[in-house]
Write a structure and sequence with these properties.
Helices cover 0% and strands 51% of the residues. By secondary structure, it is mainly beta. It has one domain. It has a four-stranded antiparallel sheet with strand order 1-4-3-2, with no helix packed on it.
């Protein structure tokens, strides 16, 4: 998990462009670009995480099929 800071500029807000590259076998991997209001790329980040499914939650299970 990494955050790389580039050029920081004063800004009222930031735009986070979040890309999920893969979710497989309980792990997720993705990339983030952080832009200032004027379009300046201020930072990039990458993240890996553990994905957990709760059996008691309503809706489809991890397979996408309805629970019995």
């Amino acid at each position: 998990n990494t955050l790389r800071i580039g050029k920081l500029v004063p800004t009222e807000w930031v735009l986070l462009d979040i890309r999920i590259h893969m979710v497989e076998r309980g792990f997720g991997h993705g990339l983030v670009h952080m832009f200032a209001e004027d379009g300046t790329l201020m930072a990039t980040a990458s993240q890996s995480c553990i994905i957990r499914f709760w059996r008691d939650m309503p809706g489809p299970g991890p397979s996408g099929k309805a629970k019995k």
